[in-house]
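#onboarding

Welcome to the new folks! Below is a worked example of what a typical request in this channel looks like: someone posts a single protein sequence, and someone else replies with the predicted structure as tokens. Don't worry about understanding the tokens yet, we'll cover that in week two.

Example request:
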Amino acid sequence: MEQTGAREGGPLAGEPRVRVPEQAGAETRGPAANRSEHTVAVPGPRRTVRRSSVRGQILAALRAALVGGELAPGEVYSAPALGERFGVSATPVREAMQQLAVEGAVEVVPNRGFRITERSTRELAELAEVRALIEVPVMLRLARTVPAARWAELRPLAEATATAAAGGDLARYAESDRAFHGALLSLSGNQQLVQVAEDLHRRSQWPLASGPVAGRRADLVADAAEHMALLEALTVQDLGVVSSLVKEHFTGAGG
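Example response:
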């Protein structure tokens, strides 16, 4: 069995706290008075959660906690302990953690739980290189073929990243950043490409073993500004600027 005493991080500052409804047939736990009242923050407004979406909401919350640094690299977290914080059984937490293991964000520790992967700056550089090899040729092709009006339609997505950056919201920035890049690549019409790129993008957002990059929050603003610059370069078909922006952007704060 997993140890329930594994470390629990605190909620993300400034995020609304919600408790996910218990699933039907979930394991019975002790009286409410003996349960922890700590919760993991779930990004977005409060809303009623359908039982079928419990696993998905927990997965989203865990991803946000990872990006925000609430779940520390190298630490082990047990599914029962996290389940207490969510107000659900350990089962949906294990399922969400298994997905994160597939994505490379955590690794399974037998009889204990899940250890947050300790990534290095070298791994981050390797991810940036792979992303550039895949995405630069695609963006150059799109710059030659996509009408200017289509790029204008993506401005609201770029503006959303700027808003998140201005607020210093790492988790929300990561979400809006992926949405922007996903929308760009979706214009290629290649869904396999979009899925592979999203996986690489998500991996590049997991925290480093040494903690957040120095000045990360301030760098988000500059990173978001590159989105607007990229749209402008794509609109006027400036291939040189497109190529350099895409390459440099992958090594920035949000990627």
